[in-house]
Amino acid sequence: MPIELPALPFASDALEPHMSARTLDYHHGKHHKAYVDKTNAAIAGTPLDGKPLEEIVRAAKAKGDQGLFNNAAQAWNHTFFWNSLSPEKTGPEGRMKALVDSAFGGLEGFHDAFKAESTGHFGSGWAWLCQDGDGLKIMSTHDADSALVHEGLNPLLTLDVWEHAYYLDYQNARPDFVDIFLTNTINWAFAATNLR
């Protein structure tokens, strides 16, 4: 069974005005789909054919197969990103809130730290909120690299900071895109479900 392009977890216009349907149509329907298609082409007829995407990403990393890793990890990262977004404006609750408060001194501290990491990241990549042992950690990865394959880290949320994620809506203003994510579209319920 080939890897499938998952449907968006919301309608393509559900994040407007923060993220346009046009952006999502290109980003999901073209960029994400291309990574899925290239992953399927690379694994066809190999022992990885029919394996779960997470397993393919980890195997490609372990084997040093950079071409497969780039496409498979990007396919995984994008699926994780769509789920990190929500049309509902929410905040952390319960255990998630306690962890945010402990690590960052509250939501404002988290916003400041995540924005600094996201906007300070040079070039293409991803910003992550991860569980690290008993606490939380913010980090960024370059290009297709994924928190999924970083030892000891459990990804909770991600933000795509490649230009294609925001250029149609925000041009070169990545800080504005990051602000919108943090204040309007972040999916805290999804982050909470990923806690170990």
TrEMBL record:
Catalytic reaction list: 2 superoxide + 2 H(+) = H2O2 + O2
Manganese/iron superoxide dismutase C-terminal domain residues: 92-193
Record InterPro entries: Mn/Fe_SOD, Mn/Fe_SOD_BS, Mn/Fe_SOD_C, Mn/Fe_SOD_N, Mn/Fe_SOD_N_sf, SOD_C_sf
Molecular-function GO term, any one: superoxide dismutase activity
Record bears the keyword Metal-binding: yes
Binding of Mn(2+), residues: H27, H78, D160, H164
The keyword Iron is assigned to this record: yes
EC number, UniProt record: 1.15.1.1
Keyword tags: Iron, Metal-binding, Oxidoreductase
Domain Manganese/iron superoxide dismutase N-terminal: 4-86
SUPFAM superfamilies to which the protein is assigned, alphabetical: Fe,Mn superoxide dismutase (SOD), C-terminal domain (SSF54719), Fe,Mn superoxide dismutase (SOD), N-terminal domain (SSF46609)
Family label: Belongs to the iron/manganese superoxide dismutase family.
PANTHER family hit by this protein: SUPEROXIDE DISMUTASE, SUPEROXIDE DISMUTASE [FE] 2, CHLOROPLASTIC
Primary role: Destroys radicals which are normally produced within the cells and which are toxic to biological systems.
Name the record gives this protein: Superoxide dismutase
Organism whose genome encodes this protein: Sphingosinicella soli
